[in-house]
């Protein structure tokens, strides 16, 4: 019996799994980051080798029967980075194994489309819109980082919330409960104090992104300023999705839009608003994945064998991860 392996590598954590051809997980392991942009090549090789050795120790006989490895890794946005990582992984498996490395956005996409073409909107701390069409052409919109982009991300929502609160404090903006909520959140009595804390942080965006939760809460309390921020966010996300759809798909082509990331965790806010905004685009179907991204890497591994996973395989992956 043959087996497939999948890897989901990020800037803080990496997961790897092995599954049989029915989608049943037989080995899994977790390690630190594998983004080549935030670590040395030596450390990257060490991390991947440790993971592969761990899975080999769990199922030694199975490891030798792996037929393909699909790795979705953050920070491999160019051909050179992909080729380098593929060479590294090929040294860790037998010569007969097919190895493919793509950006981790592909894992997120496949976790919701199960290998079919589509679009994934990732909005966590940062944001990017990524897609693959029937011709296997890849393209993206956004993903330019917090200095020049990340529209619709947790950082973007938090930043807009803080700015609106400061304008309200100055008297040059509408009153909003966000001002009081921010002072409570940071345990201060004046906005100057939490602003000072944000600027003094080694990574200011790590302080700003969690504020998005306050904006969501203010929105639920019918705060007009929070509602305006949500309108801005929905417009940005909708524009990115529609732009990528026009770049990759024909006007009458159906495409699933997968929503991944923390800002979509409350399904009653952004997912609902975004679905309403896109309702006139009948060929777009919004979905929130129940499969983990590392499961998407397994889908990619099956596709390397020219196997499109059926519903039983998909369900087995979801239930045994």
Automatic annotation (TrEMBL):
It comes from the Bacteria. InterPro entries: ATPase_BadF (IPR002731), ATPase_NBD (IPR043129), Euk-type_GlcNAc_Kinase (IPR052519). It holds the Pfam family BcrAD_BadFG. Residues 6-296 form the ATPase BadF/BadG/BcrA/BcrD type domain. PANTHER family: N-ACETYL-D-GLUCOSAMINE KINASE. This is BadF-type ATPase.
């Amino acid at each position: 019996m043959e087996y497939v392996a999948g890897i989901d590598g990020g800037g803080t954590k990496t997961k790897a799994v092995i599954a049989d051809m029915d989608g049943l997980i037989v080995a899994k392991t977790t390690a630190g980051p594998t983004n080549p942009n935030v670590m040395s090549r030596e450390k990257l090789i060490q991390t991947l080798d440790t993971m592969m050795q761990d899975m080999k120790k769990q199922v030694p006989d199975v490891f030798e029967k792996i037929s393909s490895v699909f790795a979705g890794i953050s920070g491999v946005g160019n051909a050179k980075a992909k080729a380098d990582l593929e060479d590294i992984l090929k040294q860790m498996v037998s010569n007969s194994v097919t190895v493919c490395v793509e950006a981790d956005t592909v894992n997120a996409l496949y976790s919701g489309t199960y290998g079919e073409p589509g679009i994934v909107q990732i909005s966590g701390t940062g944001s990017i819109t990524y897609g693959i069409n029937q011709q296997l052409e890849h393209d993206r919109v956004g993903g330019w980082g917090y200095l020049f982009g990340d529209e619709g991300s947790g950082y973007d929502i938090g930043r807009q919330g803080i700015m609106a609160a400061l304008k309200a404090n100055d008297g040059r903006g509408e009153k909003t409960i966000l001002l009081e909520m921010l002072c409570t959140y940071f345990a201060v009595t004046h906005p100057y104090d939490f602003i000072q804390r944000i600027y003094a942080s080694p990574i200011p965006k790590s302080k700003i992104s969690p504020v998005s939760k306050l904006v969501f809460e203010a929105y639920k309390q019918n705060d007009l300023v929070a509602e305006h921020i949500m309108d801005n966010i929905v417009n940005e996300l909708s524009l990115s999705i529609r732009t990528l759809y026009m770049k990759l798909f024909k006007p009458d082509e159906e495409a699933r839009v997968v929503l991944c990331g923390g800002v979509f965790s409350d399904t009653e806010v952004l997912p609902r608003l975004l679905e309403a905004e896109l309702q006139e685009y009948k060929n777009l179907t919004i979905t929130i994945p129940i499969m983990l991204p590392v499961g998407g890497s397994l889908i990619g591994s099956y596709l390397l064998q020219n196997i499109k996973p059926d519903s039983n395989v998909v369900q087995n992956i979801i239930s045994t991860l």
